[in-house]
Write a structure and sequence with these properties.
By secondary structure, the chain is of the alpha/beta class. Helices cover 43% and strands 18% of the residues.
């Protein structure tokens, strides 16, 4: 099976959540299903062309303008079985237009947080042309269905996470560490770091031995946010790290006592699953697919977005109740182990591919 995947964001050494997910899915399918290969057309990447174990990556400088031409040239040589747009836009729009041109079956993914009325025209085009629509969460599919009225040939396949073999954990540390990760490096307002910063300022006044660690804030993308940190009266207790490789993020994450997702909009956050896989208690906003991961009071605590006050209240609640903190972390670990394992994700994706090809 030869699959052409269009993804605005991909790299053999993935950083962003979407790139990490795509690498996990294609690597897993290649390993499990013999004869499967993936040709990925992307805007990002280390070089113009890379290949490794059934994954072929083609980087385009003018992605939106040149992607269909590249798909057509590759198809003449490779004869793709499926054209797969990994996300809605621009990936999905490129995929359905290319599949119409080449008369190939198509799949479009719904992964990000921006499915809304502002993209209603694109949603309707995709709904009309795509052979199958696969959403990362029930919430995303519900929004898409509301806009397009499409109810058939759809599926929900949640992200997964590989349970770490060696969970180090923190032992007898006097410092209470609160953490958050923005994989793409551009924290923007959508990640809600401003609300987290305000909450920590109050929390730190009550808990002197505490620290806020923020991973993924590049100087070029987040100059205004970094200036706000510099002006903060407790800046010496705020650690802002830049963009890191995925394995480095996971190593840093193990040092967190609690993970706070303060986003005002989300897809199906890998970072929340990763924190839970380490047994770290999670405080997360009720946005996107997060509500399908975190069950309030059982494996984490849910809060409303835009509320630094509620972030503070939940932090104090966890800090003052270590038994609850441990329970939330352990239940989160078991949730990921039982329901979000890669074998399930890979099997479900392969079943969708078979349905599209009518095998």
């Amino acid at each position: 099976m030869k699959v052409c995947i269009i993804s605005n964001d991909f790299s053999m050494q993935p950083v962003g959540g979407r790139a990490v997910s795509l690498k996990r899915i294609v690597s897993g399918m290649i390993k499990k299903y013999e004869g499967t290969e993936f040709h990925i057309i992307t805007r990002k990447g280390e070089s113009k062309f890379q290949k490794s174990n059934g994954i072929f990556v083609y980087k385009l400088d003018h992605f939106r303008e040149n992607a269909i031409g590249m798909i057509k040239r590759l198809d003449e040589r490779l004869n793709f079985d499926i054209i797969h747009g990994f996300d809605l836009y621009p990936d999905g729009l490129i995929a359905v237009n290319a599949s119409s041109l080449l008369n190939k079956p198509s799949i479009v993914g719904l992964r990000t947080s921006y499915i809304s009325l502002s993209l209603s025209n694109i949603c309707k085009i995709v709904a009309k042309k795509a052979g199958y629509v696969v959403s990362v969460s029930k919430q995303h599919l519900k929004l898409f269905t509301k806009i397009t009225r499409r109810k058939t040939r759809t599926a929900v396949i949640n992200n997964s996470i590989q349970i770490p073999q060696n969970r180090k954990g923190r032992k007898n540390s006097k410092t209470f560490i609160i953490g958050n990760v923005s994989y793409l490096g551009d924290v923007r307002k959508v990640k809600g770091w401003g609300y987290l910063l305000d909450a920590f300022k109050v929390f730190a006044s009550k808990v002197p031995d505490s620290r806020l660690v923020l991973i993924g804030a590049s100087k070029t993308d987040n100059s205004n946010f970094l200036k706000a940190v510099e002006k903060n009266s407790i800046k010496h207790r705020i650690v802002v790290k830049g963009v890191m490789k995925h394995e480095d993020v996971l190593r840093e994450m193990q040092m967190f006592d609690v993970y706070v997702q303060s986003s005002i909009s989300e897809g199906f956050p890998n970072a929340v699953l990763e924190a839970m896989s380490f047994g770290i208690p999670v405080i997360a906003t009720r946005v996107g697919g997060t509500k399908e991961i975190v069950k309030h009071g059982y494996n984490g605590l849910l809060i409303e977005p835009f509320s630094s006050e509620e972030i503070y209240e939940r932090l104090i609640e966890i800090y003052n109740n270590r038994e609850k903190m441990y329970s939330l972390g352990q239940n989160g670990y078991m949730t990921v182990k039982r329901h979000f394992n890669p074998e399930r994700e890979i099997r479900e994706w392969y079943e969708v591919y078979k349905k599209v090809l009518k095998l």
